[in-house]
Design a protein that fits this description.
Layout lengths: L3 H28 L6 H26 L1 H10 L8 H9 L1 H60 L10 H8 L10
């Protein structure tokens, strides 16, 4: 790049866009069932990449701080920095390393949690689908059987919900020893 500040701007925008995209995909994956919660997969599996970015920056900062601060010294005019601000940044290197290590740990934890949440939500979705399918099939079968029963006894005041429970007693079938 012709302008050194452009490197920092492009890196910041690319990193921020990645973070925003993964956050949006995580929300979509959490609230939507489409594609087997693929938004959670995408959000979860970018976490190690982001954590690796943090760890590489920590290693770069600790291994050769003169490279980072040399770059800042050379381009301080373009980046609108002065010597006092660069000195302050040099003093804050341990703080930056702690913050970046904490963020890397959070990203790894996010990966683990999103993987578990996705598995739980997929089980929940499968259970909801089975329940919905069984309710639909039972409504269809009860509608067919209730129309047959209503034609046999039109004077019954019970609803169709109690018919499967009370059907044998109303028809006059008395059970003997096999009640309970």
């Amino acid at each position: 790049f012709a302008n050194p500040a452009m490197d920092a701007v492009i890196t910041t925008i690319a990193f921020g866009s990645t973070m925003l995209f993964t956050s949006i995909m995580g929300v979509i994956g959490f609230y939507s069932r489409m594609c087997s919660r693929c938004g959670l997969v995408l959000s979860g599996y970018t976490s190690p990449v982001i954590a690796l970015f943090y760890l590489v920056f920590i290693v770069l900062l600790l291994a050769s701080p003169e490279t980072v601060f040399g770059y800042l010294d050379e381009n301080k005019d373009v980046m609108y920095l002065n010597d006092a601000e660069i000195l302050l940044l040099k003093q804050l290197v341990p703080f930056f390393c702690i913050v970046l290590a904490s963020l890397a740990a959070i990203e790894i934890i996010r990966f683990i949690v999103l993987r578990d949440i996705r598995a739980t939500l997929l089980r929940f979705d499968a259970a909801n689908k089975r329940i919905h399918n069984s309710l639909v099939s039972s409504k269809k079968s009860s509608h067919r059987s209730s129309s047959k029963r209503s034609s046999k006894r039109s004077n019954s005041s019970r609803s169709s919900l109690t018919e499967p429970l009370m059907g044998d007693e109303e028809e006059g079938k008395v059970s003997g020893d096999d009640d309970y």
